[in-house]
Every structure is written in structure tokens, then in C-alpha cells.
Amino acid sequence: MQILLLVEAGYRFEILLVGYQNPFHRLTNGDYCEGQTQRNNPCDNAFIICIRHMGSPANVCDIDRLQTTLIERDSDNLMFREGQSIGGVQNPIAVSGVTWPRKIEIQVYVYDTDGRGNSISMNSDYVTEFIIHPDVNASTNGAYTEEFNEIDDPSSGQRRSLQLAFRLTCLPPHFGPDCSLLCNTSACYLTATTLQPGKTSFSSPDVLTPTITTMPVRPDKTRGSSSTLRPVITVARRPSEDQAPSPVSIGLICTGAILVITAIGIVVTLLVILKMKQMKKMYSQDLVASKEKFEDSQDQGNEGKFEEHLYDTVKTTSTFRTISTTSPPPVYAAVNAMYHIAQEDPDGMAMEKNISYARVDVERNVAYGVVVGQRSQHRPMMPLPDQ
Fold this sequence. Notes:
Residues 13-140 form the Notch ligand N-terminal domain. The protein is 22% helix and 26% strand.
């Protein structure tokens, strides 16, 4: 029973063959391609390309292996184009995988078929070998990176060079330097550098596709050097997402603010009304208590102790010390009670006169008013308790 596991590719790596030169028409052992007597005759070149992970066993092409047929007869100055078939191998060479391994090795073997057919065989002459370790990641997505390799042996007069270019592209929905990250449930949009998460559809107009134009390759580098082809990148701009709030949004915000302020005002008003009712109730209770205490003193014949009753009324009133300075203190309620009783009492004319001396300093809650003992006498004023 076989179980097939489908794994979605995360990257696409392309190897673009740019050019190959062997100006002295020599093999790696120093011999000439067409023999000593035909030194100026070029080789009949064909390539074997091995793509492998670094550290893999020798001669194991664990990523891909490609072999061309005769590329061009009698030519040691080869220039290649993108989209061209090179000895049956499409240019660029493309490989894909889940996660970009970063450390890979590319081996390019060159053989001279020597007119013995169009394919590499046991009779083909070994010309040279190039080993390249490309340094590329998705941060250069959309652009090729040039790799120039040269074998130069001044003692034998041999010089051979190979130019390649590389391009790494993350495949949706992968992104990141090594294409190992996913966009989760959202699609990605493409920028000039890498794939980013955040868009809802790859087919939307917001998907940006860079247009790449590479400069001509200049095979004038030293052996093993590398440089980046200077690309001209044209990228459409995404519409700005930082748009001003709409009038509807502003209206809703203002309406909400007004409702909040109105609710606060209603709550404050209700609290003030409740407080006023509580104060009115306390004043009424103080007035009733003062009147009853005064009447009790009359009924019991303790007129001489009215002064003490009034003093106690003020002293024991719980709200006296907390009442607002703009409101009548409890002593004012007691004086009012005395005034009304005096008016009802036929003999209370003297008391009414005495009560006229009452003065209440509301701001300091100190009564400069009266202390009345017996009805017909005006006694000195007694200070109220300290606040």
C-alpha cells in the first residue's frame, strides 16, 4: 500500500546560464581540444550540471542533474539568452522545494565531444569543472544575482570562465528570506523585495508584480567573485490605506460623545436634587425637634432652662458641622421655631423683641443671636459650639 503525501512548493530557484569562454582552446590537462597541430580550433562543448546540497556525498546530485547535448560546434565563446534551449536544457534551469536550503552547490562539468557525436560519451574529452556556491535569498526576489567564475593558470596559459545568474522566488502563500513562512489564512501581496502577508486575494489588483530589466553581463571579474545584476524595477503603487475618516464616522463619534455628556449631566442633576431633598428633610426635622423641646420646657415650667435646651439643640445636631456655609445652619431653625412660638404667645411680645436681636452669620456658621431665658428678660448672648 502506497501513501502519497502532497507537499506544497515554497520556492522556485532559477539558474540562468549567461556565458562560457575558453579563449586558448585547452583541456584541463593542458592539451589542445583538436590536438597540438590544431591549436586554434575550438572545442565542441557540452555541459553536465549537478545541483546538490552542500555536504551531500560526492558525485550525488540530490537536487537535480542535467546534461546537454552539443551546444555549438567549434565555439569556445558561448553567450546564452534567457528562454533559450541550451543543448536541450531550458535556460534558466528551475528547481523548487518547500524550504530554501540556502547552502547549495552547483557543479558544471564541460566536455569536448570532439566531433564524435552530439552527446557526451566515454570518448569525450574532459575540459574543465566549475564549482559555485550561490549566495542568494528571497530578499532579491525578482532580480537575478550574477556569479562570475574564472579558472586562470598563468603557468600553462589556461583560462576558462563561466557566468551564471540566480533568482529565488517565494511561491504563494510562502514568504520570508528562505520562503519558510506562510501567510496563514490570508493571501500575500508581492513587493519588490519579498512576499508579505495581508491581502485577501492574490488575484486582486493590489497584487504587485515587479518588471525586471537586467543589465548586460560583463565577464571581467576575478575568479570566484560575485556581483548583483543591476535591475530596473518598476512596481505599481498600492493605494494608501491611511485614508481620512468618513463624515458618517465623524458624525457617529460626535453623537456618541453628546449622549455620554448628556447622561453625565442627568446623573449629576439627579444627585443634586436628591441632596437638596435630604437637606430639606433634615431642616424640617431640626425645626420640629426645636419646637417640641421648647414647648416641653414651657409645659414643665422650666422656662429658665430654655437657654440650655437651645444650646443642646445646636450642639447635638449631627448636621451642624457638615452643613454648607451657604445654607441655614440648625441654629437658624431653632431661632425660627422660637419666633413662631412667640407670635402665638400673647405674653410673648418681649420674646419677639428679644428674638429680633438674633443674627446668624451663615458664612461662618456662628450665631450671634439670642439666648432667651425667661420671657420677660433679655439675657446676654451665649456663643454657639465651635465648628
